[in-house]
């Protein structure tokens, strides 16, 4: 019985550990805005099928990982290097293409508060109606 309990605990621990592992490429995902007058105004980096995809007004293409924080954009024969801040989070991207270095700053992600979503507002309205109706 003890062996079965220990085995069950190990299995649960393994499942929790695997579920908690996050795709390391997600750190690069986000919107990067370039300086005014740059050939590219902004790019959006997403994770699709275990690879990074760069989206801009010039098109969408996958980028190939070469090293830590370094990728290759084959379509334009360009190096893509992500830079990190003091807290080790990705803060900007530098794209070296045709002798130019384009540097884009990562925009901060603003999480929507639950109360700001339409579903939450509807739920809140129903709650108020229910309370009014049954507390009088």
Kindly describe this structure.
This protein has 136 residues and is of the alpha+beta class. It has one domain (24-136): Lipocalin, CATH 2.40.128. It has 2 helices and 8 strands; from the N terminus they run αββββββββα. The protein has an 8-stranded antiparallel beta barrel.
The third-level CATH topology is Lipocalin
Shape: globular
Radius of gyration using CA atoms only: 23 Å
The CATH architecture assignment turns out to be Beta Barrel
Number of domains: 1
- What share of the residues does DSSP label as strand, in percent? 35-45%
Question: Characteristics of this structure?
Answer:
136 residues, single chain, 8-stranded antiparallel β-barrel, alpha+beta, 8 strands
Summarize this entry quickly.
This protein has 136 residues and is an alpha+beta fold. It is built from two helices and eight strands.
Set out the fold topology.
Elements: H1 2-20, E1 30-34, E2 42-48, E3 51-56, E4 59-67, E5 70-73, E6 78-84, E7 90-97, E8 100-106, H2 118-134
Antiparallel strand pairs: 1-2, 1-8, 2-3, 3-4, 4-5, 5-6, 6-7, 7-8
């Amino acid at each position: 019985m003890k062996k079965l309990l220990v085995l069950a605990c190990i299995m649960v621990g393994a499942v929790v550990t695997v579920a908690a592992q996050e795709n390391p490429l997600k750190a690069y995902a986000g919107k990067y805005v370039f300086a005014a007058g740059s050939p590219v105004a902004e790019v959006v980096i997403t994770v699709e099928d275990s690879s990074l995809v760069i989206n801009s007004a010039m098109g969408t293409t996958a980028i190939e990982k070469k090293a830590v924080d370094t990728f290759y954009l084959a379509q334009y024969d360009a190096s893509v290097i992500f830079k990190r801040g003091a807290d080790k989070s990705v803060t900007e991207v530098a794209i070296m293409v045709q002798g130019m270095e384009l540097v884009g700053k990562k925009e901060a992600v603003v999480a929507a508060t639950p109360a700001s979503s339409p579903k939450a507002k509807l739920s809140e309205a129903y709650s108020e109606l229910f309370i009014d109706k049954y507390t009088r």
